[in-house]
Amino acid sequence: MARMSPEINAGSMADIAFLLLIFFLVTTTMDVDTGLRRLLPPPINPNQPPPPPVRERNVFVVLVDQNDRLLVEGELGNIRELREKTKFFLLNPSNDPTMPERVMRDVENLGEVEVSRGIISLQNDRGTSYDMYIAVQNELAAAINEIRNELSQEKFGVRFDQLTDQDLVRAVREAVPMAISEAEPKDIGGGSR
Amino acid sequence: MIKGRFKKESENKSQKINTASLPDIIFMLLFFFMVTTTMRETTLFVQNKLPSATEIQKLERKSLVSFIYIGPPLQANIFGTEPRIQLNDAFGTVNEIASFVEAERQARPEAERPLMITSMKIDSETKMGIVTDVKQELRLVGALNINYSTTRGDVAGL
User: Fold this and answer.
1) Mean pLDDT of B133-138
2) Domain boundaries, chain B
3) CATH 3.60.40.10 fits B52-152, yes or no
4) At A111, is the secondary structure helix, strand, or coil?
5) Sign of the alpha-carbon dihedral angle for B62, B63, B65, B71
6) How confident is the model at residue B112 (pLDDT cuts 50, 70, 90)?
7) Of A118, A143, A180, B29, which one has the greatest count of Cβ atoms within 10 A?
């Protein structure tokens, strides 16, 4: 009778591990989902009185029609100029009475800062292409991010996207809110069906 | 005859490479992939070429994200070219989004439900009409946290 060898043959272990590895390679994905985060407004409750209308001077109207043309504050606009225009509107450097009001607000970690009451109202048509819509959303977000960067640079000496302290991030977010309203759908400019 | 030749060859190979640590290496690779990747849940039925944007954010916790795919069907000869909504593993309609969101909510622990994000993976050739319908439906069911899924890159038209 042969003596049992104390070693277990582990030669097939590698094959089993390879099999598992290939299974995981095939069934999983590596990509991290990225995108533009937005918060939708809550549904309108018919029993509640409508919120008070926002004053005209505080609203920055951006329309995109079914041919992907841009109407910014009543004028034909270009997507290349949208970022600058939005920034100028929100900052209102010359205190123009037709541009948004600014209120002093006490923000934690920042002290008294001027907060713009400007709201961007983005309206689109049913025929607008999604590509264009995202491009416009991106430019509007870029404008706000640039303002945040400037404020953060001025107060903390670091750009907003490089801030690591969550309290400071929250403070800058409060001082420069991401006020983009995706309006109630309405058919502007005929549209497609 | 043949047997003899084989025997001769094996006699020549006196040295063997020790492969005892090979399983360990493969297991290490395996664990690496298990940790860094996530399970693919759905097979896509719609074309899904995402638009690109620069101001993007990462979705940190994948377990909180549910996906809605919109785009023209891949099998255009069967389903046509009109953009369709895909929920999980089947085509859906706008009316089915409410039950889809409810099912997604039920699948997660109660404490995490308010943090849920609905990520819309929409093909860049889609028109906004169907997107608006979906958004309105999401508002009605209270899934207000949304994400327009995009890739990193320069914006089209700039």
Assistant:
1) 89
2) 2-36, 52-152
3) no
4) strand
5) positive
6) confident
7) A143
